[in-house]
Specification:
The chain has helices spanning 15-32, 44-70, 74-95, 99-123, 125-131, 134-147, 161-169, 178-195, 199-202, 222-247, 253-264; strands at residues 205-207, 214-216. With 270 residues, the chain is mainly alpha-helical. α1 (15-32) runs antiparallel to α2 (44-70) and α1 packs parallel to α10 (222-247). It is globular. The chain starts with 14 loop residues before the first helix and ends in a 6-residue tail after the last helix.
């Protein structure tokens, strides 16, 4: 892409800067990610999966931006940030995956729908039976039987998130190691908010030193909000790069490069 991307850590805690860049990224999507067509070298199924994951990522990013611009809901934005990470990572990983891996991802619903239905039927057989017609139940089971041998571990891939991150990073410009950087820096920590383990509530509990009242209140700083937005921007740059380079070649490279330079503080934010 003709640019070395290195996140400016000095701007990571600047909320105003991160919010302005986020708006520009949303504008980039709305003005460039239009009327996409599958390039000759790319399988149509893979192309559809990539664009669907990209669209999902854009909407999640939009929600994170709204929360960090208008609220102090850092924990909720953090949970969405983890979702955004996995969505963008899956898109980047699947783009260069072999056909069997893509098929395993695309067909996973056949296995999972049947498995979820069976689990619910164990709890409430009558409701589970009434939820689907006999024809729908038969079709779901037929689909599951045709693919379940591919999901012996109950997942669509046995590749770990960490290894997937390293693999996906290989397609980006030098210095732009978004997935490995954010996996080490935030991904594992954000699981606290997704799973509500004790780390997700520690910041809410304030106990007086004399053994008096306990206050439950979450104090949030602008720096915290900025860091969430910084990570979301990093992921947004990644998915925009993936889509732009795949579907539009060099058409929007100058616009993408300019936004990166503004984000890094190398160019004035216009």
């Amino acid at each position: 892409m003709g640019i070395k991307v290195e996140p400016n850590r000095g701007l990571r805690g600047n909320l105003t800067h991160q919010l302005v860049v986020a708006k520009k990224l949303l504008g980039f999507v709305e003005t460039t990610m239009l009327a996409w067509q599958t390039p000759p070298h790319l399988d149509r199924r893979k192309a559809a999966i990539l664009m669907a994951l990209a669209d999902k990522s854009f909407r999640t990013f939009e929600t994170i931006h709204y929360l960090m611009e208008t609220t102090i809901a850092v924990d909720d934005a953090g949970a969405l940030l983890r979702i955004l990470y996995e969505s963008v990572l899956n898109a980047a990983f699947l783009l260069n995956a072999d056909n069997q891996t893509v098929d395993n991802y695309a067909d996973f619903f056949m296995y999972r729908n049947q498995r979820d239905h069976e689990l619910f039927a164990q709890i409430d057989p009558a409701t589970a039976e009434a939820a689907l017609t006999r024809e729908e139940t038969a079709t779901m089971r037929r689909h599951s039987d045709s693919v379940k041998g591919r999901y012996s571990h109950g997942k669509w891939t046995t590749v770990s998130i960490e290894d997937m991150a390293k693999k996906a990073d290989e397609q980006f410009p030098p210095g732009f190691k978004v997935f490995a950087y954010l996996y080490a820096g935030i991904y594992r920590q954000l699981s606290a908010h997704v799973h509500s383990d004790v780390r997700s509530i520690q910041g809410r509990i304030r106990e007086s030193e004399d053994g008096g009242p306990v206050w439950i209140q979450r104090a949030v700083s602008d720096t915290e909000r900025a860091r969430v937005m910084h990570a979301a921007n990093f992921l947004m740059f990644a998915i925009c790069f993936t889509v732009t380079s795949t579907f539009y070649g060099n058409r929007y490279v100058p616009d993408w490069n300019s936004l990166v330079l503004q984000w890094n503080g190398n160019e004035k934010v216009s």
